[in-house]
Amino acid sequence: MRPTVLVVEDEPAVADAIVYALRTDGCDPVHVASGAAALAALGARPVQLVVLDVGLPDANGFDLCREIRRSHEVPIIFLTARSEETDRVVGLELGADDYVVKPFSPRELSARVRAVLRRAAAQPTPAKAAAHRPFDIDEQRHSVRYFGQALDLTRTEYRLLTALLRHPGWVLSRARLLEELWDDPGATTERAIDSHIKALRAKLRALRPDLEAIETHRGEGYSLRERW
Ligand code: CA
Predict the structure, then answer these.
(1) What separation in Å is there between the alpha carbon of 26 and the centre of ligand 1?
(2) CB 3.0–4.6 Å: which of 6, 38, 72, 85 could bond 148 by disulfide?
């Protein structure tokens, strides 16, 4: 599978050169030109690496890196027009995986991208290290992240998942889950619970096919995996 690389760069000529080099090297580049668009793109699909320009029209790349780091464990390579040591140090302190100073050759950047992707694949990533807490709930926005990636959940799926998350390892019966959704027109029967769980599982598996987050207990109900 071609790794998706999010390119956050507001200069069209620079962005075009990067996108071309990455595509030639077997990556699937996604280009955005602002910090807001970068956050939206990260929420919309799994991304394996971010190439982040430090000088964006709506954001400072370092601030944006902090923002990304709050919810994503994705590797980041900074692009900067300045070669000052402070920029390099700030970038590395923020957990940047590499640093490229403009002007640079797109092929050189692409080689760095591949090196970071190789390292990320070979080493336990921070996401794997934090695997005991794979879910991150934002109750204000009714959204849940799973290993740093936003899940696109229906209202019913969100409520089922948060009910399970409140009691990791507990077996919740279908009747109990129905009680959680008493005012939800989408969940009126125990059979409906099964189909919502099935849809929810498919969304979790799409992000982590190697893990089973929700366990079925025949004749009893469902539980959320306790150990990761
Ligand atoms: Ca710029």
Answers:
(1) 25
(2) 72
